[in-house]
Write a structure and sequence with these properties.
GO terms for molecular function: very-long-chain (3R)-3-hydroxyacyl-CoA dehydratase activity. This protein is mainly α and 251 residues long. Helix content is 71%, strand content 0%.
Length: 251
């Protein structure tokens, strides 16, 4: 709720690397080839989503209810980040760009959760403008992020992509988080009315679960996590971009 992941999100550190006194050993040639292919495919996938949004907007002449035009690819590529969470961040990407794995995991899981357990499950919120807010933030963030990973793996990272990676989150992350929170809030009345995913007592498991309350707790969790994520990224931005500028001056 990720941010985003965002968003823009972007994920926790998501490649917001810094000066590295010690680099972990990166992936081998075969793993690098796989990772490059994966990131190229994901970049292309989010570009498809971006083009779909633009085409739907031009066809309709309105930004309302654009979610339906990109629903399937959004679900596919956002869910695909689960594979990245395990294979890329947990095993390989720390050797390329340092990441906060805990915060990254939170952002990946929160975005998948919002995609399936909120937007997909509560059909009534799919027409909310807040959905478009986080979809646009996620889309821009992911195009930049996967491009960043691809060029980093190829050891040829253009400054423009690095700058975008470390700068646009300043707007995209708050934008994505706002859309996510507003969407969850819009879903609450429908969840309470329908009893979606809730389990009442008595039952043979002697267990109860109130999805309405759970969503409220999810919203509250943004209070401690989002500032930590955001300020961590601001700190990383200062270190990386200042280091880049110093390196340029020394050349």
């Amino acid at each position: 709720m990720a941010a985003s992941g965002s968003g823009g999100g972007s994920r926790a550190d998501n490649g917001y690397g810094s000066q590295q006194p010690r680099r972990r050993k990166g992936p081998g040639a075969l793993a690098t080839a796989y990772l490059v292919i994966y990131n190229v495919v994901m970049t292309a996938g989010w570009l498809v989503i971006a083009v779909g949004l633009v085409r739907a907007y031009l066809a309709k002449g309105s930004y309302h209810s654009l979610y339906y035009s990109i629903e399937k690819p959004l679900k596919f590529f956002q869910t695909g980040a689960l594979l990245e969470e395990y294979l890329l961040i947990a095993k390989y990407l720390p050797g390329i760009v340092p990441s906060s794995v805990v915060l990254t995991a939170f952002q990946v899981m929160s975005r998948v959760f919002l995609t399936w357990a909120v937007t997909h499950s509560v059909k009534e919120v799919q027409t909310e403008d807040s959905v478009l807010l986080f979809v646009v933030a996620w889309t821009i963030t992911e195009i930049i992020r996967y491009s960043f990973y691809t060029f980093s793996l190829l050891n040829h990272l253009p400054y423009l992509i690095k700058w975008a990676r470390y700068t646009l989150f300043i707007i995209l992350y708050p934008m994505g988080v706002s859309g996510e929170l507003l969407t969850i809030y819009a879903a609450l009345p429908f969840v309470r009315q329908s009893g979606l995913y809730s389990i009442s007592l008595p039952n043979k498991y002697n267990f109860s679960f109130d999805y309405y309350t759970f969503l409220i707790l999810v919203m509250i969790s943004y209070i401690p996590i989002f500032p930590q994520l955001y300020f961590h990224m601001l700190h990383q931005r200062r270190k990386v971009l200042s280091h880049t500028e110093e390196h340029k001056k020394s050349e």
